[in-house]
Amino acid sequence: MRQLPSCAAGAGCSHRSAPIGTFGSQQTTVHNAWIRAVRQAVIPGLISAIAMAALSSCALQQEAAESEAVSGEPRIVRQVDRPLSPGTGGDGERMFRDNFVRGTLSASGHWQLRGEVVHPRLRCASYQFGLRFGNGDASCDDTDWSAGLELLPSRLQCNNATVIHSGEGTIGVPPEEISALNCVRVVVRCTGACG
């Protein structure tokens, strides 16, 4: 007969005689009991560790977003420079257009703007359009931005929303300089959980 180790829970190992035919089944029983004990002790600990790592990662991302929102400093999330082209409405009106924005500038300095912002997150952010006019080359790469930045009111967007922003105003440039303006810069500023 062979000597088998027998380890019961809470007891020390002892050796005893066992018939040769029972060697494999006793070893399997001990092995299965050991695996059950490891699963009961290790798996809940692993699950807890993974959950804590995920939560701490989420907390760090939330802290970063909240610190950005608390700072209140808007950041530019989109900017385009476009040439002004002759408009369709007479009175010396000129227009500009891009994929997400379009607008006009009249000979008297009155401007209109309509733009679309897609907010790709569930958490909220405030978006604000701004525009300024200047005089530059045909591609508006080298432009003297003589007019100050005109801002539309900011709008809060949440939950993957697409919002149309629109507004109008009059630029603070003397009338004799308005005809020389041939470029527009459109910016989109954001505060909060920007996309």
Helix content: 25-40%
**How many helix segments?**
2
User: Tell me, what's the shape?
Assistant: rod-shaped
Rg computed from alpha carbons, rounded to a whole number of angstroms: 35 Å
Task: Sketch the major β-sheet.
Answer: 6 strands, antiparallel
Oligomer: single chain
Low-confidence stretches: 58-70
Would you tell me the overall average pLDDT? 79
Strand tally: 13
End-to-end span in angstroms?
74 Å
Helix/strand order, N-terminal first: EEHEEEEEEEEEEHE
Secondary-structure-derived class:
alpha+beta
- Percentage beta strand: 35-45%
Q: Explain this structure to me?
A:
The protein has helices at residues 23-71, 175-178, and strands at residues 2-6, 14-18, 75-83, 85-86, 94-97, 101-105, 110-118, 125-136, 143-144, 150-151, 155-157, 162-170, 183-192. With 195 residues, the chain is α+β, with helices and mostly antiparallel strands. The strands form three sheets. Strands 3, 8, 9, 10, 11 and 13 form a six-stranded antiparallel beta sheet that branches. A five-stranded antiparallel beta sheet has the order 4-5-6-7-12, with no helix packed on it. It has a two-stranded antiparallel sheet with strand order 1-2. The termini are far apart. Residues 58-70 have low confidence and may be disordered.
Provide the fold topology.
Blueprint: E1 2-6, E2 14-18, H1 23-71, E3 75-83, E4 85-86, E5 94-97, E6 101-105, E7 110-118, E8 125-136, E9 143-144, E10 150-151, E11 155-157, E12 162-170, H2 175-178, E13 183-192
